[in-house]
Model the fold of this input.
Amino acid sequence: MKMRGLKDIPTRHALLNRQVPRTRAQAAFELALLENEKAKLEREHGIWLANQLQIEARLRLAQERSVVLRRLLDDRKSGRKPGGKRRGPVPAWRSVTLEY
Amino acid sequence: MTAATVTQDASGNVPMALTVRPRSDFVDTPYISEITDKAISYLQADIPVHLRGAAGTGKTTLALHCAAKLGRPVMLIAGDDEFNTKDLIGGEHGYHYRKVVDQYIHTVLKYEEDAVQQWVDQRVTTACREGWTMVYDEFNRSRPEANNVLLGILAEKLLILPAAHRDNAYMKVHPQFRAIFTSNHRDYVGVHQVQDALSDRMLTLDLEYYDRETEIAIACARSGMSTEDACGIVDVVRDFRTSGECEDTPTLRSSIMIARIAAAKEIRPLARDPRFVTICLDVLGSKAGLEKEQRDQRVQMLIGLIERYCQ
Done:
C-alpha cells in the first residue's frame, strides 16, 4: 500500500474496527472500491503479462541470431566454408600435392 | 591424413604443407635405393642430412623422395639471397585493431581503442611446431646470417624466437621434425660458403652423376622413348661430359631434353637424320663455349660422338 501520510498508518483501534463495516452503506462503498481496485489490478496484470511475452519473444530472437553469427565466426576462423557439410575428420592443415 | 588439433598462428591462418609422392614413372634403381636408404636411416636417427652435388645430380628429387618415405608433411624452402631471419621464422605483419564503444548506461560512454601487431609464423617455425619434414633446397643460396637460426634448431632442438614474439621466446622443436638440405658446391654464381657451425650439425652425402643404367632409365621414363633409342642419347651426353671439352657440364637434363624433343617429334635418334643432329646441337652446342674456334672444334667432336653412338 502506497504510504501518503500519517493517515495511512493504521492504529490498533482502527484495525480492530475496520474488519467489519458498521453499516450497509459502508460495506457497499468498500466493496465498490475493492471492485475498482481489482479491475485496475487485473488490467495491470494483463499488461504486465503481455510485456513479459513480448520480451521473451525478443530474447529468443536475439539468442537465435547470436548462435548463427557465432557459428559463422567459428567457421571463418577455422577456414571452413560456412554452411558446408562436414564429411569425415577435419584436416589440420591445407595441403598441396607435389609429384617428383 | 588423420585429424589433429589445429594449431593456427596468431593471425588465425591454417598452415599449408606439401604432400610429396613419386610420379608413376619414378625410376628407383639400386643406386638410388642405396642413397635413399642411407639418408633415411640417418634421418630416422634424427641427424639432418645434406645432399651435396653439382647441377643435375638429382639432389632435389632425392631430397623429396626421402621426405616422402618419412611419411610426414613436407615444408619446402628454396634458398634465396634476399632471405633474412624473418623470412624463415616469421615476424610481425599487419595490425589487429580493437575498438570498444560501451554505452550500456546511456549517460556514460566508455571508448577503448588499441592496435596490436600480428605475429605471423613462417615456414621454419611451422615445420618445427608441427613436426614436418623441412626440405631446404639450395640452402647455400641464402646468406649465412639468415641461416643462423637453424643452429639452435638442429643442435639444441630449440627455436629461439625474436623479442617481437610476445607469447613465447623459445619453442621446443617437435620430436618428429626432420631437416634435409641440398646444395650445389660447384656453382660459382649466387652461392655462399656454408658456415662451419651449420655444416657440423648435419651429415653431408656427396652425390655424383648417376650411373649409365640409371640415366638411361630416367631418360626413358621422362620421355617415353624406348631403352634402345635412349641409350645412344645418354652415351653421347655422358661422353661429352667426361671429355672435358665443354664450358658448361651437360647433365642428365640434357639427355632428357633431347629424348623428349625427339619423342615428341617422332624422330628416331639416328646420326643420318639431320633433324636429330640439329636437336643435339641445339641442346649441347651451347655447352661448348662462346669462343668461335674452340666452339667449332667442340661441335665437330659432338657430331663425331653422335655418329658413333646413334647409328
